[in-house]
Q: What sequence folds into this?
């Protein structure tokens, strides 16, 4: 487990840094908080599209290969990626929702076309590359997954430097960087998969055939409908929260929230990276009803999240006292304590992931949807209430989004924990 955790932390750290660089670029070129608010809405639309294809295709596909030996799980990765990319061309249209909502703001006219086109491309490539890394983890090749993340980081740096040197239009750069870095590093991942497949001399062809036959669009959608209903609802609610805060408290408040979120985002990526690295164990634990293994993964995840969140939170919050940092990123540190709220929120949201994976492994997707519905309700109510307070208090309005998301994350963490207890008690 230590090797998987180490590689998972490295994977998530490199991925986080790549994302952070893109977000910092956006913050440096979009000085108006309202522009950052628009950027935030498009980013959540990308995540919504990515969530739909991940829950509808990729996670059910991962379950289909659990019965194969770990290395053999890579054999069907190209097939999975093909299905996912084709699906993503449709789910990526979620960016049009952001285009529609932002179009009502007069100051957004210049960014609509570049944001829409490049965000759509990012929505297609992001989930496929993430899946390729997760499958490398699932197959036991944790170092290879980290290498793909490192490649993505190098590509992102190169693209951003090139865009700055060539003085390319800023509106086209952030989401294009995400799309290109993910696409090119996906190619590296598929190259690694191809090489490793050739080294597999002995294969259980019958088991592989069964798994391959199960990897059809119809079968995966049937298996993933509960997942997409739950996770899709949560991600759609996140996007709605940005729109709610922007429409009630103003996109200036949404922009301050986005600027602070950027600095706290490494905690979110860490949570996803840990879940990717440990998913092999926790999915299997859910399938075999192994309470001890599942609980161990949860405790390790929570311990790492807690320690890193505290240390990182202190460091990134304290950086606001450095004059050059405040001058370079004034919007992020304008609302005192906002970054710390985001750090805590992302830690709480990430804490729910291992129990979620356990329930997926146990085929308890309907119970996930039940919890997600309650989480979406409390998040929406919180966003509306805090948004109205934010009309007269900019600090509360700016904190509305992370606080509402934190309530959602806490609801999921508690809810999934209770469903896990039911799972092991056998009462259902």
A:
């Amino acid at each position: 487990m230590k090797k998987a955790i180490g590689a998972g932390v490295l994977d998530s750290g490199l991925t986080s840094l790549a994302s952070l660089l893109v977000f910092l670029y956006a913050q440096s070129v979009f000085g108006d908080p309202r522009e950052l608010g628009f950027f935030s809405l498009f980013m959540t639309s990308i995540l919504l599209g990515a969530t739909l294809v991940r829950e509808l295709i990729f996670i059910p596909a991962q379950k289909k290969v659990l019965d194969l030996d770990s290395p053999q799980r890579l054999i069907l990765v190209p097939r999975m990626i093909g299905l996912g990319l084709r699906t993503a061309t449709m789910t990526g249209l979620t960016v049009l929702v952001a285009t529609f909502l932002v179009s009502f703001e007069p100051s957004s006219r210049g960014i609509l076309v570049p944001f829409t086109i490049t965000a759509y491309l990012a929505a297609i490539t992001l989930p496929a590359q993430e899946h390729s890394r997760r499958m490398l983890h699932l197959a036991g090749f944790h170092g290879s997954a980290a290498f793909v993340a490192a490649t993505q980081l190098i590509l992102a740096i190169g693209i951003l430097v090139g865009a700055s040197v060539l003085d390319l239009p800023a509106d086209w750069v952030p989401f294009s960087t995400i799309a290109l870095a993910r696409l090119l590093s996906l190619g590296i991942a598929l190259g690694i998969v191809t090489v490793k497949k050739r080294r597999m001399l002995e294969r259980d062809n019958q088991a592989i055939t069964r798994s391959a036959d199960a990897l059809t669009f119809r079968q995966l959608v049937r298996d993933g409908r509960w997942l997409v209903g739950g996770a899709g609802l949560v991600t759609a609610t996140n996007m709605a929260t940005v729109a709610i805060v922007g429409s009630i408290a103003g996109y200036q408040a949404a922009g301050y929230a986005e600027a602070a979120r950027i600095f706290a985002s490494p905690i979110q990526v860490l949570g996803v990276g840990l879940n990717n690295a440990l998913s092999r164990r926790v999915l299997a634990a859910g399938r075999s009803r192994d309470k001890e293994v599942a609980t161990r993964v949860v405790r390790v995840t929570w311990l790492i999240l807690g320690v890193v969140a505290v240390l990182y939170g202190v460091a990134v919050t304290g950086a606001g006292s450095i004059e050059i940092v405040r001058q370079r990123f004034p919007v992020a540190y304008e609302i005192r304590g906002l970054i710390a709220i985001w750090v805590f929120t992302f830690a709480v949201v990430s804490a729910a992931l291992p129990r979620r994976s356990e329930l997926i492994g146990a085929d308890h997707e309907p119970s996930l949807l039940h919890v997600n519905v309650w989480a979406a309700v409390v998040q929406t109510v919180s966003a509306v209430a805090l948004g109205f307070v934010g009309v007269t208090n900019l600090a509360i309005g700016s904190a509305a989004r992370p606080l509402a998301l934190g309530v959602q994350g806490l609801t999921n963490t508690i809810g999934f924990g209770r469903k896990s207890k039911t799972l092991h008690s056998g009462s259902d």
In short: The CA atoms of residues 108 and 306 lie 39 Å apart. The mean pLDDT is 86. Residues 251-288 form the longest helix (38 residues). The radius of gyration is 21 Å.
